[in-house]
Amino acid sequence: MTFSTTKTFILALVSLLLAASLMIFPKEALEASIRGMQMWWEVVFPSLLPFFIVSELLIGFGVVSLIGALLEPLMRPLFRVPGVGGFVWAMGLASGYPAGAKLTARLRQEKKLTKIEAERLVSFTNSSNPLFIFGAIAVGFFHDATLGLLLALSHYFGNIVVGIMMRFHGYNQEKETSNNASSKGLKQAFKLLHEERIRDGRPIGQLLGDAVQSSVRTLLMIGGFVILFSVLNKILSLIGITSILASFFSIILTFFQLPSDLSLPLISGIFEITLGAQMASEVDTTLLEKVIVTSFFLAFSGFSVQAQVASILAETDIRFKPFFIARLFHGLFAALFALVLWKPLYLNQTETTETWGSMPAFLAEGSNHWLSTIWLNLVEFGPLFTLVMLLTYLYLLSKQILAK
């Protein structure tokens, strides 16, 4: 039996087992599906769609070429990617995953990145957005806004280290690009912007319609993955596979002097971040140990997010393997930074509170931090926004079909 035949047999068997599990546990599968749908409907769609649409408009109007020309002296020496990588990095940081992968794939399709440069860029531009870290995890699960700053800095510092490390990826495969690394003046940068807009050629109305349709299609795909992995995580727990994996992960946690009680939250977080963070916050162990494990799987991104990225990258020649390796390193670096920054960013702040009875408002526990406030508003008004944009998408799609 060849390897290909064996692989086919295994994939078919796994699919059959999954289908059988859904029939055996229909109620639990439905609840997990609704939970995933609720997360996508209330948070994922309304938080990502504006950034996706704006990104498409910026690319169409040539603004990305302008930013790329100005940021070339920074991005090329530091990460060995073109200046347009700075735009992807900023948008990925602000909107969260998988925006970095979507924009990297788009720029690769437009030949603004080489294959190696795209693989470097996608490895460090996919990160969790501040809203999710402060609103959902720090305030929502741990009920402590002070942890938001610790988790966020650990996450983003780890991402920067991964980006610097991945600059050596494909070093021997890449041709010299010194001729592209020269800095362009402001006049030349604006000239590039104008040339890019003329080359695109689409009127503003068409560009906006295309941006909405492309963004909604991507988010519908993301929603499918969120629901699928929410159900898969629940099924694995019900049939006992999660418990088996927990025994293995408890050995790894013991090696790092972490309690084995965190093995179940770690496994859940590796599959789906939100559930893992909720479970970690409820474990009876020290807060530092919870934060270290949460920081790891938050940086690892979870198989749900990685499947989304893999689906987006499949439309290009960008390989998924470098991205996956980068996520492992990002998880380790983020956990290490959480340990190192624990005392200066958390303990010192809580000690200040106990000593003086006050602390900076943006760090105070239960404070109305603006990120937390935005998160609560997003959860409240997100479904309405999602519904309106889906109706807009259906209108644009039907109009396009009738025009043909």
Please tag this protein with its features.
single chain, 404 residues, mainly alpha, 17 helices
Alpha carbon gyration radius: 22 Å
Helix run count: 17
Strand content: under 5%
Count of the domains? 1
Q: Compute the average pLDDT.
A: 85
Q: Main sheet?
A: none
Q: What class do helices, strands and sheet pairing give?
A: mainly alpha
> What is the subunit organization of this protein?
single chain
User: What fraction, in percent, of the residue positions are helical?
Assistant: over 70%
N-C termini distance: 49 Å
Order of helices and strands: HHHHHHHHHHHHHHHHH
Low-confidence stretches: 177-181, 356-368
Outline: globular
Number of strands: 0
Organism: Halalkalibacter suaedae
Domain Nucleoside transporter/FeoB GTPase Gate: 43-140, 220-314
Keywords: Membrane, Transmembrane, Transmembrane helix
Protein name: Sporulation integral membrane protein YlbJ
Describe this structure in words.
With 404 residues, the chain is mostly helical. It has one domain (25-403). It has 17 helices and no strands. Helix 7 packs across helix 17 and helix 10 (204-238) crosses helix 15 (302-313). It is globular and about 60 Å long. The model is unreliable at 177-181 and 356-368 (pLDDT under 50). Pfam families: Gate (PF07670). The chain crosses the membrane at residues 47-71, 78-97, 131-157, 235-255, 292-312, 324-342, 374-396. This is Sporulation integral membrane protein YlbJ. Residues 43-140, 220-314 form the Nucleoside transporter/FeoB GTPase Gate domain. It comes from Halalkalibacter suaedae.
